[in-house]
Amino acid sequence: MKLHRLTASEAGPTKLFVGGLHGKEGLYTAPILEQLAKDVVYAGRAIIVPCLVEHGKYVDVLSEEYYRSRAGIELLQLIENYKPHFYFELHAYSEHSYSRLTDPERELRIGVPPFVDLGTGILLGSIAPILRRKFSERDFCITIEVPNWKSENENVRAEVLRVLRLALHKVKHEEVIAELRRWYPAQMQKAEELFRQYYRKSKLKPF
C-alpha cells in the first residue's frame, strides 16, 4: 500500500484521502490521488492512499464483511492510526451502475441514500454508515464516485481534483461545504437534505 504524507508548516486538521478500496477501482482512483499528492498548497496534515488494495475481491463497503476483509482491516487501521478530521473516500463505478447508485428509492431498497450527481457523472454522498460510526460528530466524511469510463477525461479528472483540493487546502469543514454550495447549489442542497433525512435521529451535520 503506497502512502503519501503531506504536513504543512502551520497547524491544521488531519485529512485522509483513500482510493481503490475494493475490486479494480484503484486503476481509476490512483492517478487522481497521485496528482493530488503533488500539490504544494495544503493545510494541516494530509495522508493520501491512492490505492488501498490492487485487484482485490469486490466486497461492498456497506457490509460488515468488508471491514473483516484485509482491505477493510487496513482501512480501519489507517483511521485508528491517523484519527482524521477530514475523510474522503474515492470510488469508481461502471456506467451500468449509475441508475442503481442514484436511485431515488435506494434507501428503501438497500438502506442508504442515493448519491447526487455533481455533473458529468461525478457522484457525491456520505460514507458507509458502518464506517461513519468510527468518526466523531465533528468529523467531515465524504464519498466521491468517479465514472470509470470517463476517468481519463481531462474535464472529469480536473473536476474531481477541484473538489479534493478544496478539502486539502481548507482548515474548517464549514469552509469546504460553503464552497461546494457555491459551486453546486442545487446538488448540495439535495445531498444535504438526503443526509439530514437519513441521520434525522442523530446530531450529525452534513457530512
Blueprint of the fold:
Elements: E1 4-7, E2 14-19, H1 26-36, E3 45-49, H2 70-82, E4 86-93, H3 98-101, H4 106-110, E5 116-119, E6 122-125, H5 129-132, E7 140-147, H6 154-169, H7 173-183, H8 185-198
Parallel strand pairs: 2-3, 2-4, 4-7
Antiparallel strand pairs: 1-3, 5-6, 6-7
Helix pairs in contact: 1-6, 7-8
Any key phrases for this structure?
Rossmann fold; globular; single chain; 207 residues; 19% strand; 7-stranded mixed β-sheet; alpha/beta
Count, helices: 8
- Give the biggest beta sheet: 7 strands, mixed
Oligomer: single chain
Gyration radius from CA atoms, angstroms:
16 Å
Percentage of residues in helical conformation:
25-40%
Shape: globular
- Total domain count: 1
- CATH hierarchy: architecture: 3-Layer(aba) Sandwich
SSE string, helices as H and strands as E? EEHEHEHHEEHEHHH
Total E-strand runs: 7
The CATH class, by name, is Alpha Beta
How big a fraction of the residues is strand?
15-25%
Between the first and last Cα atoms, what is the distance in angstroms? 27 Å
CATH topology: Rossmann fold
Poorly predicted segments: none
